[in-house]
Design a protein that fits this description.
Radius of gyration: 22 Å
Strand order of the largest sheet: 1-2-3-7-6
Structural class: alpha+beta
Mean pLDDT: 97
Order of helices and strands: HHEEEEEHEEEHHHHHHEEEEHHHHHH
CATH superfamily of the largest domain: Aminoglycoside phosphotransferase (APH), C-terminal lobe
Strand content: 5-15%
Helix content: 40-55%
Distance between the termini: 59 Å
Number of domains: 2
Bound molecules: 5-S-methyl-5-thio-alpha-D-ribofuranose, magnesium ion
Shape: globular
Number of helices: 15
CATH architecture of the largest domain: Alpha-Beta Complex
Largest sheet: 5 strands, antiparallel
Length: 419
């Protein structure tokens, strides 16, 4: 059953009547649609998100809007992004079992997905702002990133399957274009939709006059648009992770595309670093301990990622890349090859990490970690540390030994008055 062949945005009022004949929804919440309670809870930049509560349970209905919600209908955006989100979720579920919400129903015409209601999960960014710890977070995220990266690449996949997938996701044009502009380009010049805390002007002018930095960022963009190593989530920030105190899931992969192996883990680490730098505005007690907990999460994510990637290299290297025929079957150790792949991956990851730290303070779509700081002078000081560390990471990306070195740089900037 579908909710019609012509797209129409749902509302709290129309949803029960329009979706009452979708068996996958009725079987989760109960078939008496008159008894459904519907709330719209979308707080992201793009979509409608409804919680449907019925006598037998709850489900999420996520529907794409034909424009950028954050900006309005002056910025149209194709509905087909729901199609790519659906296909990304099915691939993530296969490559990292248990890591993403279960999908109950997809309606392409209505650009909507009915999926599992995660409870009592909340958006991880809210927990980080509130100073809450999540057990197992680093192990979950490191494993998720390694599995999706490795199993979505030709280290593992059969080449015809991987190339078909690259072709499928190549149809997603406007969504990657957002990342190409907002993440990789707009922070580094006075782009129209940019905004920033006024006090940051001296830091921004330093960043924008750093030609070597702009070259490195554009090299990263070149790799992002042309290097189809694996299927990336594409928007893996702390608003794309939901957690309880002991369990986490990754949500919202509508920015999925084939891209560099290190893209997701780099973007994610940036969001933990921004949580780290923003903490002095969010708490007094427990500040030092909580900041150290965040750095520990970053270090453990990266260590888990490396261990899982190397384990998959040893046990699931079934693709055309670095075949056993050239290494193990010849009695040759393939560890140096894995080391080389990981060195490139971390170079990309730390570069993307620095860029993400810039874009969330300088272009459109900032993050709540800094944006909710009401004391503007304090916010500027904390954002300035974050911006300068981002530049440092971009410059040093190919020389950083490991995540511990990144954490040491973070501690250094956290103690500096950059402004
Ligand atoms: C116009 S969309 C702005 C941002 O929201 C999404 O969540 C992505 O992070 C994108 O860059
Ligand atoms: Mg999103």
């Amino acid at each position: 059953m579908s909710a019609g062949t012509v797209y129409e945005a749902l509302s709290v009022e129309t949803l029960p009547e329009r979706l009452k004949d979708v068996p996958a929804l009725a079987s989760k919440v109960g078939s008496d649609s008159a008894a459904w309670d519907v709330k719209e809870v979308g707080d992201g930049n793009l979509n409608l998100v409804f919680i449907v509560t019925g006598p037998e349970g709850k489900a999420i209905v996520k529907q794409a809007l034909p424009y950028v919600r954050l900006v309005g209908d002056s910025w149209p955006l194709p509905l087909y992004r729901a199609y790519f989100e659906y296909h990304a979720l099915t691939r993530q579920a296969a490559r990292a079992p248990g890591a993403v919400p279960e999908i109950y129903h997809f309606d392409e015409a209505q650009a909507l997905i009915v999926m599992e209601f995660l409870s009592p999960h909340v958006i991880l960014r809210r927990k980080l702002i509130a100073g809450e710890r999540v057990d197992g977070l680093a192990e979950f995220l490191g494993t998720y990133c390694a599995r999706t990266a490795f199993r979505g690449s030709e280290l593992s996949m059969a080449s015809p399957d991987k190339k078909a997938d690259v072709a499928l996701f190549a149809g997603n044009v406007e969504i990657p274009a957002i990342t190409e502009a907002l993440v990789f380009t707009d922070p580094y010049y006075n782009a129209e939709m940019n905004h920033h805390t006024d006090e940051l002007e001296p830091v921004i002018s330093q960043l924008r006059s750093d030609i070597a930095l702009k070259v490195k960022v554009q090299q990263a963009l070149q790799r992002f648009v042309s290097n189809t190593e694996t299927m990336v989530h594409g928007d893996l920030h702390s608003g794309s992770i939901m957690s309880t105190d002991t369990d986490s899931r990754v949500i919202d992969p509508e920015f999925a595309q084939y891209g560099p192996l290190g893209f997701d883990i780099g973007m994610m680490c940036a969001n933990f670093l921004m949580a780290y730098f923003s903490q002095p505005a969010h708490r007094g007690n427990d500040l030092a301990d909580y900041q150290e907990w965040i750095l520990g999460v970053i270090a453990d994510i990266c260590a888990t990622f490396e261990a899982e990637f190397r384990a998959l290299w040893a046990t699931e290297r079934t693709g055309i890349l670095y075949p056993a025929a050239l290494f193990e079957d010849q009695g040759h150790d393939s560890t140096p090859a894995c080391d080389a792949v990981l060195a490139d991956l971390w170079r990309d990851a730390w570069t993307v990490c620095g860029i993400e730290m810039h874009r969330r303070c300088l272009s459109l779509a900032h993050n709540a970690d800094f944006e909710e700081i009401e004391d503007i002078a304090l916010r500027a000081r904390l954002e300035a540390r974050n911006l300068m560390m981002g530049a440092d990471l971009i410059h040093k990306a190919d020389t950083l030994a490991d995540a511990s070195a990144v954490c040491a740089i973070a501690r250094d900037f956290n103690g500096k008055d950059v402004l």
